[in-house]
Amino acid sequence: MKDLYIEGDEIRDEKAPAGPVAERWDQRRFSAKLVNPANRRKLSVIVVGTGLAGASAAATLGEAGYQVKSFCYQDSPRRAHSIAAQGGINAAKNYRNDGDSIYRLFYDTVKGGDFRSRESNVYRLSQVSVEIIDQCVAQGVPFAREYGGLLDNRSFGGVQVSRTFYARGQTGQQLLIGAYQALERQVQAGTVEMNTRHEMLELIVVDGRARGIVARDMVTGEIETHFADAVVLSSGGYGNVFYLSTNAMGCNVTATWRAHRKGAYFANPCYTQIHPTCIPVSGDYQSKLTLMSESLRNDGRIWVPNEAGDTRDPREIPEEERDYYLERIYPAFGNLVPRDIASRAAKNVCDEGRGVGPGGLGVYLDFADAIKRLGRPAVEAKYGNLFDMYQRITGENPYEVPMRIYPAVHYTMGGLWVDYDLQSSIPGLFVTGEANFSDHGANRLGASALMQGLADGYFVLPNTINDYLAAGPFEEVDESTPEAGEAAEAVRARIDKLLSINGNRTVDSFHKELGHIMWDYCGMERNEEGLRKAVERIRELREEFWQNVRVLGENEELNQSLEKAGRVADFFELAELMCIDALHRRESCGGHFRSESQTEDGEALRHDDEFAYVAAWEFGGTGEPPVLRKEPLEYEYVEMKQRSYK
Amino acid sequence: MNITLRVWRQKGPDDKGRMVTYKVEDVSPDMSFLEMLDVLNERLILEGEEPVAFDHDCREGICGACGVVIDGEAHGPETTTTCQLHMRSFSDGDTITVEPWRAKAFPVIKDLVVDRGAFDRIIQAGGYISAPTGTAPDAHASPVPKADADRAFDAATCIGCGACVAACPNASGMLFTAAKVTHLGMLPQGQPEREARVVQMVNQHDEEDFGGCTNIGECAAVCPKGIPLDTISQLNRDLLGSLSSGAAE
Amino acid sequence: MALKSAMAVTGVILVLFLIAHMYGNLNAFAGQEAFDTYSHHLRELGEPMLPHGGFLWIMRVVLLASVLIHTYAAVALWRRAGRARPVRYQVTKRVQRSYSSYTMRYGGIMIALFTVFHVLHLTTNTIHPGGRSESPYERMVAGFQPEFWYVTLFYVAAVIAVGFHLRHGIWSALATLGINRQSRQRSLNIIATVIAAALTIGFLLTPLSVTFGLVE
Ligand SMILES: Cc1cc2nc3c(=O)[nH]c(=O)nc-3n(C[C@H](O)[C@H](O)[C@H](O)COP(=O)(O)OP(=O)(O)OC[C@H]3O[C@@H](n4cnc5c(N)ncnc54)[C@H](O)[C@@H]3O)c2cc1C
Ligand code: HEM
Ligand code: HEM
Ligand code: SF4
Ligand code: F3S
Ligand code: FES
């Protein structure tokens, strides 16, 4: 295996305070240097991304008095992909008096992350979760309320306390609009300069510090350089490497990958979360997968026919010829097993040929019993909007015919490695939200990502970044600084190259093929043989891409093929690293099942003695193997346990 | 099924633009409208013609990026976003006309892509509650009656797609503006800035070259999120209130 | 925005005038005397506080001002709408808007033209199909005789235009004044339709009755 990577020295999170876990965040806030308000005006920060993590950070830093430049590739900051989150956001408010506490949220999240996260970070996340809700309510986020006028909570993803705050099925949208409005308020106040339809294509590092970015104005094609005292990347996740995922079409790894190539470690790239209840693929023209809230599993029953190749109308399959496989294998949890288990079980039955619908990639999610038990009006009241959505997309009526669902890639826990201050391995480069390697580790739970995005942006980064900026303003840099000129030149050369190949295949056809490789070999279930094959095929395909892709038009215009081509080019490089990371992690953990590492009855088996570390990858140079740097994880408060759902 | 598309092609903001006809064959009824355009674009690229540019991102009806006028209707024949419109809403042999949103406030950038920055500027003018980070009281400090919370929510679901402007015979952005005024105006947190907000937002709306609203109601009829028409009335009520109390100055 | 409020307020004033005017017109059914007395009365109203014809003049000033403001606002909004969409759609489809809402502007012009004619005809006595007369009643009856069917036709067309204008106008004014709520939307729409219909029928009654010889 060592042929694919080199092992380097271990690393440590130098910023994490010691002492009792509950006091660490306070301690760090106290020890971090402050910046006097008069000096803040002289300091500038670039924030790439306007999702929950980016918009909240830009708004808060602007409010604090820094000069902020904010970037997003969409036409408005409000369209960042956080908008699509449906389910909810966790917070340890204990409004239900059901025994919740910061400690319990901490405990559940560490366990949910399968012991691959840092205790200090998770504890801080739980602490801050409380303030997030207060902040959002003050901004006018219309969370669901009860008749008494107080906030409603629900339990989410198999947790025993009700701590999830939600806004119908549109929690992400409402949270994002709150942050977006706060951001626009700062734009009006003149503290934030907003650059929409700008895509970051390179990081500028001067004297070892992150000092700016190269961005392309997507309307005019102009390659611009922007400078600041610190750079924050909040550019979201890279689930689109799988081509089909629940991510928006534009989600990309470019911002973080370019930073990785400039020296930032990329941690745990193979950790992805797979969501069990998505609407299945209907044809090869399919461009994206739509998630349906997992709450459907509360009342729907999941099954497939007993016999492979049974193509009867599901309503005509008698009860005894159906396999309610989750209820059969996991009688204690039934249809409510965690995401990874539900997803893998669905894949297994489909691999056995028992899948339903086009291409045999789907299982039934049946509400017939629930309708019988609760009556149609009750089901409609609870799930009406989801049923409508399903019907709009598939043209089938889920009140009559069972829905079909299939797992899909949904969230990526890997990302740029950061320390307790959210600073990457490049000084002055901070990373927040899904773009960093998540606080919650190899997460299998829901409602944690929104929490992390807002915690990072509103509360953590604005406190920790001061410690770095206190040493600024740093030396003046501009276009004439050699590093900046080189970075811009590299971007131009790459664009020229893409436009000049004029081959025979479209960008999308490459992306689709790459997606297939990733899904087949680096998806829910992996093994050494498959991953090796994947690395090989990715390399071949990348080779072909650079010889044979066709990108029409020119740079000096809105050119959507060119945008895509740049993103796919970076996905190729990331994909290889993901496979190498997956290959080296010879254990089943989080959402991932490694065939070589299972218990006797086929369940996931972790190897804490060998793999309780963060795998931070250092870029080894173009064409050179990456360097693995391990950050060991220690657990003082939560005892490491194997999970069991039987 | 086979479809004939008449699509607006415009090279850039200064180009005059024209309709171009394309045939798209073997369209599956399960495709979304945008997937049908993807299929067309893949073919165009291989034929050496530049693909049709259109805005889109989430493709699940929530980001508000997509939106074109299809046969004279904003977002096409169903009340949903363009990305959630499926080809089963059309029939084999149909000719479909596809145009960008048309409004001075939304200049065309290329083909079907327009610039909706005017909406962001309306929000900048006052579409927020000033709540600096870290200053918030406990979330339960001010209860909100459920009915008010629900109405605020209904208004808050606006995705900023711009279909209301595209459909309004006056090219007015009043439904978008009213949705925000209503969302924030229904909540106790929104009260201190209520009067100033509506005046500033409407002034900005007028400055952005949107038309005036004459209560035609076409906007609410095409709105994919069902923003109720009476939000405009609520905006008017707030506006008259603040004009008479002098908040306009 | 002030434009809109002005339009709504003046529109409402004009509607109120029309209601009163229709009531007056219906006096025709009570015979020449009643009608002329009503007309006379108009001029005496407010005496002795106001000079003869004083109320009428105040009313005329208010009306004229309203029409001017209303028209000004209408034209301004129309031009703004034109500017707001410099490039037109190749295909347009009405989704829900009614015939009356999208003919507001043309209807308005038609009403304006009609009013000029109408005032010249019945108030100033300048145009006089059927002969001059000092009695408004006679002027009116003479004008609507069957041989002047085109006058009647013009009136009928105008009144129908007014009906359409008001069907949307009343609803719109109420929305502009902030009275519309989701829960009231239906009833407001009904009110607008009823008032518009009542005015249309009420106005039509007089000329048609004359033309068809019910009133002589
Ligand atoms: C369908 C769906 C449902 C989900 N539901 C839940 C849920 O219920 N609960 C939960 O906790 N989590 C949920 N998640 C996960 C969660 O929504 C995301 O992890 C989180 O919102 C990410 O926020 P972010 O700010 O990090 O990134 P994003 O919101 O993705 O924002 C990325 C930003 O970066 C910008 N950007 C990206 N690349 C570039 C570039 N190269 N140059 C310039 N700008 C760039 C984009 O324009 C955008 O503004 C869900 C995710 C999905 C996809
Ligand atoms: C079709 C039925 C109508 C009839 C029979 C009718 C009849 C009359 C008569 C007889 C007068 C003169 C009154 C007087 O001088 O004492 C008059 C005046 C007037 N009418 Fe009408 N009218 C009709 C419709 C309308 C309509 C639809 C409008 C408006 C749109 C209108 C607007 C006016 C105005 C503005 C005056 C002048 C009032 C004044 O300044 O004295 N009328 N009408
Ligand atoms: C001089 C000729 C007139 C013109 C050009 C005109 C034009 C218009 C226009 C363009 C509108 C706005 C359209 C809309 O709201 O959709 C309007 C509204 C209205 N009009 Fe007229 N109109 C005229 C005369 C009248 C008359 C005589 C009346 C009453 C009897 C009237 C009553 C109204 C009312 C009540 C409204 C609604 C106001 C609002 O939208 O808030 N109009 N008119
Ligand atoms: S009001 Fe409706 S149509 Fe207008 S921008 Fe909002 S969602 Fe789109
Ligand atoms: S269609 Fe236009 S006129 Fe007003 S009610 Fe809607 S904005
Ligand atoms: S693409 Fe996001 S709403 Fe259509």
Automatic annotation (TrEMBL), chain A:
<dbReference type="InterPro" id="IPR015939">
    <property type="entry name" value="Fum_Rdtase/Succ_DH_flav-like_C"/>
</dbReference>
<keyword id="KW-0472">Membrane</keyword>
<feature type="domain" description="FAD-dependent oxidoreductase 2 FAD-binding">
    <location>
        <begin position="45"/>
        <end position="450"/>
    </location>
</feature>
<dbReference type="InterPro" id="IPR036188">
    <property type="entry name" value="FAD/NAD-bd_sf"/>
</dbReference>
<dbReference type="GO" id="GO:0009061">
    <property type="term" value="P:anaerobic respiration"/>
</dbReference>
<keyword id="KW-0274">FAD</keyword>
<keyword id="KW-1003">Cell membrane</keyword>
<feature type="active site" description="Proton acceptor">
    <location>
        <position position="339"/>
    </location>
</feature>
<feature type="domain" description="Fumarate reductase/succinate dehydrogenase flavoprotein-like C-terminal">
    <location>
        <begin position="511"/>
        <end position="645"/>
    </location>
</feature>
<dbReference type="InterPro" id="IPR027477">
    <property type="entry name" value="Succ_DH/fumarate_Rdtase_cat_sf"/>
</dbReference>
<dbReference type="InterPro" id="IPR030664">
    <property type="entry name" value="SdhA/FrdA/AprA"/>
</dbReference>
<dbReference type="Pfam" id="PF02910">
    <property type="entry name" value="Succ_DH_flav_C"/>
</dbReference>
<keyword id="KW-0249">Electron transport</keyword>
<protein>
    <recommendedName>
        <fullName>succinate dehydrogenase</fullName>
        <ecNumber>1.3.5.1</ecNumber>
    </recommendedName>
</protein>
<dbReference type="Pfam" id="PF00890">
    <property type="entry name" value="FAD_binding_2"/>
</dbReference>
<dbReference type="GO" id="GO:0005886">
    <property type="term" value="C:plasma membrane"/>
</dbReference>
<keyword id="KW-0813">Transport</keyword>
<dbReference type="GO" id="GO:0050660">
    <property type="term" value="F:flavin adenine dinucleotide binding"/>
</dbReference>
<keyword id="KW-0560">Oxidoreductase</keyword>
<dbReference type="GO" id="GO:0009055">
    <property type="term" value="F:electron transfer activity"/>
</dbReference>
<dbReference type="GO" id="GO:0033765">
    <property type="term" value="F:steroid dehydrogenase activity, acting on the CH-CH group of donors"/>
</dbReference>
<dbReference type="GO" id="GO:0008177">
    <property type="term" value="F:succinate dehydrogenase (quinone) activity"/>
</dbReference>
TrEMBL record, chain B:
<dbReference type="InterPro" id="IPR036010">
    <property type="entry name" value="2Fe-2S_ferredoxin-like_sf"/>
</dbReference>
<dbReference type="InterPro" id="IPR006058">
    <property type="entry name" value="2Fe2S_fd_BS"/>
</dbReference>
<keyword id="KW-0004">4Fe-4S</keyword>
<dbReference type="InterPro" id="IPR025192">
    <property type="entry name" value="Succ_DH/fum_Rdtase_N"/>
</dbReference>
<dbReference type="GO" id="GO:0051537">
    <property type="term" value="F:2 iron, 2 sulfur cluster binding"/>
</dbReference>
<dbReference type="GO" id="GO:0008177">
    <property type="term" value="F:succinate dehydrogenase (quinone) activity"/>
</dbReference>
<keyword id="KW-0003">3Fe-4S</keyword>
<dbReference type="InterPro" id="IPR009051">
    <property type="entry name" value="Helical_ferredxn"/>
</dbReference>
<keyword id="KW-0479">Metal-binding</keyword>
<keyword id="KW-0816">Tricarboxylic acid cycle</keyword>
<comment type="similarity">
    <text>Belongs to the succinate dehydrogenase/fumarate reductase iron-sulfur protein family.</text>
</comment>
<dbReference type="GO" id="GO:0051539">
    <property type="term" value="F:4 iron, 4 sulfur cluster binding"/>
</dbReference>
<dbReference type="GO" id="GO:0006099">
    <property type="term" value="P:tricarboxylic acid cycle"/>
</dbReference>
<dbReference type="Pfam" id="PF13237">
    <property type="entry name" value="Fer4_10"/>
</dbReference>
<dbReference type="GO" id="GO:0009055">
    <property type="term" value="F:electron transfer activity"/>
</dbReference>
<feature type="domain" description="2Fe-2S ferredoxin-type">
    <location>
        <begin position="18"/>
        <end position="102"/>
    </location>
</feature>
<dbReference type="InterPro" id="IPR017900">
    <property type="entry name" value="4Fe4S_Fe_S_CS"/>
</dbReference>
<keyword id="KW-0408">Iron</keyword>
<dbReference type="InterPro" id="IPR001041">
    <property type="entry name" value="2Fe-2S_ferredoxin-type"/>
</dbReference>
<dbReference type="GO" id="GO:0046872">
    <property type="term" value="F:metal ion binding"/>
</dbReference>
<dbReference type="InterPro" id="IPR004489">
    <property type="entry name" value="Succ_DH/fum_Rdtase_Fe-S"/>
</dbReference>
<dbReference type="GO" id="GO:0022904">
    <property type="term" value="P:respiratory electron transport chain"/>
</dbReference>
